[in-house]
């Protein structure tokens, strides 16, 4: 059976069952499958609209092809979003990951270079001085030392190189955006995921349940922003003990100032690195409030904060105390020391 069989089903607006999608995805990862056929399949799925079963199946296949990252036993969170919202916001989740780690949360941040945004998480990290050429052991050592690590997708998903080329040719969001946060090679206990499909928030929480998360928060902001936005238009679901509960946020209750999505627009990796560092120095702005809100959801998902309001307070203190900036500088130093050691060899 070739991939065109499944593409034809999808083009007839038929959803693929979990097992059918597993078979199709194995063909996507097969080097023998022509690139044009894979592109056709991904575009057909995007046109139809991907289902929870299709996303869960791809996540299962993709994770089965990932490298093993043998981290110590522990409670780990990722706050990687799907990307693909086209809004070109600055790197909110990367900044929030540093804020979380500065307050004792163990973060294994999955990320990539830009595919459908101006600056992916790996792009801004590189601009900050955190390189992406970590070996698996480097990633584990950073996690042990600083309570945070960055897992660069091409390093832990070696079979993604060819698919990455296809995605760049497509140049817009595909199911791989939806599945990225689900394929962290570390077994996560909890997660916060921003997605660009508000209508899929509850279904996405169900995918996380199927994949074994004990607790998770899924959010889609205004205009399908793949982070929580600074207004009352966020669609959010909490997964806890197998139960999924939708909930809403009121910014007034959280002490945050409303701002349009346009106020969160970033620029090049270098420009975003400046925004990130100034923010961690305590410069208040819409960027600052967006990081407080998204960090708060992370603290809430992890269980450190009992309420989102508590999470906002913890995030604010983490930044204004200087701990978050200190954490960033420690990670940069770790990265730079590695480079020096390699240059000396």
From TrEMBL:
<dbReference type="GO" id="GO:0000162">
    <property type="term" value="P:L-tryptophan biosynthetic process"/>
</dbReference>
<protein>
    <recommendedName>
        <fullName>Anthranilate phosphoribosyltransferase</fullName>
        <ecNumber>2.4.2.18</ecNumber>
    </recommendedName>
</protein>
<dbReference type="Pfam" id="PF00591">
    <property type="entry name" value="Glycos_transf_3"/>
</dbReference>
<keyword id="KW-0808">Transferase</keyword>
<feature type="binding site">
    <location>
        <position position="167"/>
    </location>
    <ligand>
        <name>anthranilate 2</name>
    </ligand>
</feature>
<keyword id="KW-0328">Glycosyltransferase</keyword>
<feature type="binding site">
    <location>
        <position position="121"/>
    </location>
    <ligand>
        <name>5-phospho-alpha-D-ribose 1-diphosphate</name>
    </ligand>
</feature>
<feature type="binding site">
    <location>
        <begin position="91"/>
        <end position="94"/>
    </location>
    <ligand>
        <name>5-phospho-alpha-D-ribose 1-diphosphate</name>
    </ligand>
</feature>
<feature type="binding site">
    <location>
        <position position="227"/>
    </location>
    <ligand>
        <name>Mg(2+) 1</name>
    </ligand>
</feature>
<dbReference type="InterPro" id="IPR000312">
    <property type="entry name" value="Glycosyl_Trfase_fam3"/>
</dbReference>
<feature type="domain" description="Glycosyl transferase family 3">
    <location>
        <begin position="75"/>
        <end position="325"/>
    </location>
</feature>
<feature type="binding site">
    <location>
        <position position="112"/>
    </location>
    <ligand>
        <name>anthranilate 1</name>
    </ligand>
</feature>
<dbReference type="InterPro" id="IPR036320">
    <property type="entry name" value="Glycosyl_Trfase_fam3_N_dom_sf"/>
</dbReference>
<keyword id="KW-0460">Magnesium</keyword>
<dbReference type="InterPro" id="IPR035902">
    <property type="entry name" value="Nuc_phospho_transferase"/>
</dbReference>
<feature type="binding site">
    <location>
        <begin position="109"/>
        <end position="117"/>
    </location>
    <ligand>
        <name>5-phospho-alpha-D-ribose 1-diphosphate</name>
    </ligand>
</feature>
<feature type="binding site">
    <location>
        <position position="227"/>
    </location>
    <ligand>
        <name>Mg(2+) 2</name>
    </ligand>
</feature>
<comment type="subunit">
    <text>Homodimer.</text>
</comment>
<feature type="binding site">
    <location>
        <position position="81"/>
    </location>
    <ligand>
        <name>anthranilate 1</name>
    </ligand>
</feature>
<feature type="domain" description="Glycosyl transferase family 3 N-terminal">
    <location>
        <begin position="8"/>
        <end position="66"/>
    </location>
</feature>
<feature type="binding site">
    <location>
        <position position="93"/>
    </location>
    <ligand>
        <name>Mg(2+) 1</name>
    </ligand>
</feature>
<feature type="binding site">
    <location>
        <begin position="84"/>
        <end position="85"/>
    </location>
    <ligand>
        <name>5-phospho-alpha-D-ribose 1-diphosphate</name>
    </ligand>
</feature>
<keyword id="KW-0479">Metal-binding</keyword>
<comment type="pathway">
    <text>Amino-acid biosynthesis; L-tryptophan biosynthesis; L-tryptophan from chorismate: step 2/5.</text>
</comment>
<keyword id="KW-0822">Tryptophan biosynthesis</keyword>
<dbReference type="InterPro" id="IPR017459">
    <property type="entry name" value="Glycosyl_Trfase_fam3_N_dom"/>
</dbReference>
<feature type="binding site">
    <location>
        <position position="89"/>
    </location>
    <ligand>
        <name>5-phospho-alpha-D-ribose 1-diphosphate</name>
    </ligand>
</feature>
<dbReference type="InterPro" id="IPR005940">
    <property type="entry name" value="Anthranilate_Pribosyl_Tfrase"/>
</dbReference>
<feature type="binding site">
    <location>
        <position position="226"/>
    </location>
    <ligand>
        <name>Mg(2+) 2</name>
    </ligand>
</feature>
<dbReference type="GO" id="GO:0000287">
    <property type="term" value="F:magnesium ion binding"/>
</dbReference>
<comment type="similarity">
    <text>Belongs to the anthranilate phosphoribosyltransferase family.</text>
</comment>
<dbReference type="Pfam" id="PF02885">
    <property type="entry name" value="Glycos_trans_3N"/>
</dbReference>
<dbReference type="GO" id="GO:0005829">
    <property type="term" value="C:cytosol"/>
</dbReference>
<feature type="binding site">
    <location>
        <position position="81"/>
    </location>
    <ligand>
        <name>5-phospho-alpha-D-ribose 1-diphosphate</name>
    </ligand>
</feature>
<keyword id="KW-0028">Amino-acid biosynthesis</keyword>
<dbReference type="GO" id="GO:0004048">
    <property type="term" value="F:anthranilate phosphoribosyltransferase activity"/>
</dbReference>
<keyword id="KW-0057">Aromatic amino acid biosynthesis</keyword>
<comment type="similarity">
    <text>In the C-terminal section; belongs to the anthranilate phosphoribosyltransferase family.</text>
</comment>
<comment type="function">
    <text>Catalyzes the transfer of the phosphoribosyl group of 5-phosphorylribose-1-pyrophosphate (PRPP) to anthranilate to yield N-(5'-phosphoribosyl)-anthranilate (PRA).</text>
</comment>
